[in-house]
Predict the 3D structure of the following.
Amino acid sequence: MSRDPLVLGEVVGDVLDQFIKSATMRVVYEKELTNGTRLKQSAVVNAPLIEIGGRDVRTLYTLVMVDADAPSPSNPTQREYLHWLVTDIPEGRDARFGNEIVSYEAPRASTGIHRVVFTLFRQEVQQTVYAPGWRPNFNTRDFASYYNLGSPVAAIYFNCIREQGCGGRRF
């Protein structure tokens, strides 16, 4: 059985296919995230700092942030809900140096515990990416295929919980 936290958290399967990590991505809200970190909604109101490791600023990346459990973990009819989309992020920099295609929208876990997934793709070329006309029912796999991004190079997820209680998702 795999000990990969993305597999154990069912991110691989629900949102992503299995991939080999080949880039370094740091995600920092009030603290640096590790897979499965629990954060209350109040901690994710503002966009996190997203840092991409490396030194070749000519290498560009695309960041996709989705909620895998919208509107609720027991009935994710809006899976995946797009929270943020940034392209053309230079290696060795953070997401603020990229091109924000869809502005950051803070996750809201009205019921249950929601897995919020950050996926990083290495771009082959700088290209025009259009914002989808909607946020619910976004599909990271289809997006990557449409823009020829290939497999992810890094991913991390956190569990977003409402301010009072948790419930709704088994661990």
